[in-house]
Amino acid sequence: MRLTPALALALGLGLLLGPAAPPAAAQEAVTVKWALKEGDTFYAKSVQDMDMKMTVMGQTMDIKMEMTYVQKFRVASVKPNATTVELTVVEMKMDVPGAPGAGAVGERLKGATFTATLNDAREVTKVEGYEKFLDKLAGGDDNLRKQMKAMFPESTFSQMFSQTFAVESGKPVKAGDTWTRTDKMSAGFGDVAIKQNFKLNSVADGVAKIGLTGDVTFKAGEGGIPGLPPGVEVTKFDLKADKFSGSVLFDTRAGRVKEASQEMTMTGSITVAAGGNKVDVMMDMKIKGKSTITDKNPVKD
Fold this sequence. Notes:
Layout: H1 5-17, E1 41-56, E2 59-79, E3 82-95, H2 102-109, E4 113-118, E5 124-128, H3 130-138, H4 142-151, H5 154-165, E6 178-187, E7 190-204, E8 207-220, E9 233-251, E10 256-274, E11 277-294
Antiparallel strand pairs: 1-2, 1-11, 2-3, 3-4, 4-5, 6-7, 7-8, 8-9, 9-10, 10-11
């Protein structure tokens, strides 16, 4: 708590005029845990802004993207160490200046449904619906389907579920307590490990305020980056997250996240080779995101 001049004055007068009031009772411990009951339905609306600068041979390109998406979650069943949650893409809008076709991807994703099985630690043990998603996204184009499968491996969708429930503390915590969670996933260029460090800052009126910092590490795969022209390969991949932070508001009475925000900055370079020539691509990326979870569909209600 910040000691303001007014508070300092009040404390000083208290010492002069009489004994201090008895200290407030210590805050009780709370368990940050989702209350998932069979049949429960909720919606998550997320807005993400990405600003990426790519510098190639002295020329800099600025790519901006805004993505808004709404997901519907339905708890299909609850069993010991096996809770089944269904996710449906209600809406996805992608705005990329200079790339009018980006919106078509979001339109194809509408209605796509996945089902994940979570263990008691809220880790994804199984995902269903992935192949149908690829069919929906590709629209009958086999080459596009292969490209999309390389860019969006099945573990990408596991992460969609994992990130929603990752904040759980697993045990009772008090203000100042910390806990961690590490998730790994495959991406189009290799593997990603996300370590999140949570800290319970305070609890008031049934809402836990949680701080978030993290580390993101990348490991390049052997297949390079999907979508590159034939004969072009990636010989070096050096990308790191310089900043990864955020906050979470968790409703301890309802057992559900109310709001979450994240901010991440990544920098690095990629070396591309073709025809005996190598080109370094410098990258600087900033991503900001905010999510809110409600009982009502934000698209209709």
